[in-house]
Amino acid sequence: MFVYAHVLPDRLDMFHLWSLAEQDLLSETVSYRLRDTGQGMNRVQAAHKTSRMMHAILNRTQKSLGGWVGSSVIHMGDHNVPNALMFIGKRAPPVEMDVLLIRSVLDTRADKYSQIYRILLPICNTLLQLPTLYGTPALRAYIDAEFGSLDALYLDILGDFYRHAFDGSGADNFYDAGSCIDGRLTSAWNWCSSLEKKRYFHVFLLTGASSPHPLLHCLYSRSLVRKGSTDSMASGRWS
Amino acid sequence: MLGFTCVTPIRTVHELLDAHGMLDLLRDPLITTATQEIVADKRSRREIQRDIKAKERAIESLSAKYSREPKLSQESVRQALYSIGDNHAFLRTNRDPCDRMISYLQQYFHPTQVRDKKSADSLAIRSGRGGARLSHDHARQYAYVVQSLALWREILHGALPLRLRGRRCSCMLTFSPTG
User: Can you tell me the distance from the alpha carbon of A13 to that of A17, in angstroms, rounded to the nearest whole number?
Assistant: First the structure.
């Protein structure tokens, strides 16, 4: 596996990372320690191979873009550790959990990154469906009245996403979130969890109807729990 | 401590084929058809059905050609082909949204200029406003978003395609990394 640390193949992917994370977990030379991390006894173990790979990928991205804004710290093994084994499951962690996830020394970064599509896919689906939505006279009137035009709606959603899914929010202190590599993902998760408070949330509900996505579905149900049955549009669909 | 180890190596498609000297399967022209993902998009049911049939036929013909009963069963070869197909499907759901969000960014926003009169296309954020923890002007935030998405993309499936790499903004060179 040393090959990956020195010469990156042209195309590498998540499977390499998964494989490296597993090797780190099962390493016979780097053992783990049981430690009380403040969240109970946890398994603390360095993840050298995964870490090296992540740094190599980051390095290559930085070179190909020609510059870098913000921190390029990859947190790995520098914090208290929750029991990382619970993150190996494929469910989407809630934001609070994700903050813990950053701290995971027993490296589950590969799993963390496999959640990216859960954030981006529902947004892409909604954006792709907007023109169809706009084709219905009643919805066209709604969008025009509420947002001005279809393009303005696009700008509204995209602008908010690009601003606040990448604004350093979501962690409990500046060092953790900020602009470090993992913090970026945390902010994106944080944005998702506030989706229901956005002006354009109804548009997401409208497009979600034809293809409910797990993440959005979960957000819908959460919004139902919080808002009770006052939101007639949501309760009509998901009750 | 246990007197035995619970760890067994992962079995990969490559190992399976290599052990039976069947690596040629990976170079067979039919493999593309046999492992391609069939995307519905806006195509007719008939076209999709035709693709599905072609894929099934390719899988059958390859698994018959490269299996060596009883050592390497036809079912094992089929499973290997499905496995490669799963990989394609995974990458498409994971990687494509990154590419699309980069495209949207390039389509609706300018790397350095705010062109809208009401600044609707400004990406500037200020720490403390709207929950933000960072302060970036428009150009810096644009660069920050591009590189974050590019990094995710790179982690998921290698470097960005050239078409998305195009507009490299010179302003990025002037920013030094900060905490």
Answer: 7
Q: Quick check: ipTM above 0.95?
A: no
Rg of chain B (C-alpha set): 24
Tens of pLDDT, residues A75-87: 555 443 333 333 3
Q: Vertex A19, ends A213 and A27: CA angle to 5°?
A: 130
Residue type at position B141: Q
**β-strand partners of B136:** B125
Residue ranges per domain, chain A? Answer: 2-113, 116-238
d(CA B37, CA B25): 18
Strands A33-36 and A41-44: antiparallel
pLDDT at B64 (0 to 100)? 93
Predicted TM-score (pTM) of the model is 0.72
For the stretch A44-90, pLDDT in tens is: 777 777 778 878 888 888 888 877 887 776 655 544 333 333 332 23
- Chain A CB contacts of B172 under 8 Å are 65-69
Q: How far apart are CA A111 and CA B171, in angstroms?
A: 33
> A58 vs B151: CB contact, 8 Å cut-off?
yes
Q: For residue A97, with 0-12 CB atoms within 10 Å meaning exposed, 13-18 middle and 19 or more buried, which class applies?
A: middle
B147 chain-A contacts, CB cut-off 8 A:
61-62, 65, 68-69
**B109 in contact with A, Cβ within 8 Å:** yes
- The residues with which A13 forms a beta bridge, in sequence order, are B157
- Give me the residue label for tokens 């977990």: A25
Helix A214-227 vs helix A201-208: crossing angle, to nearest 10: 130
Q: How far apart are CA B85 and CA B170, in angstroms?
A: 40
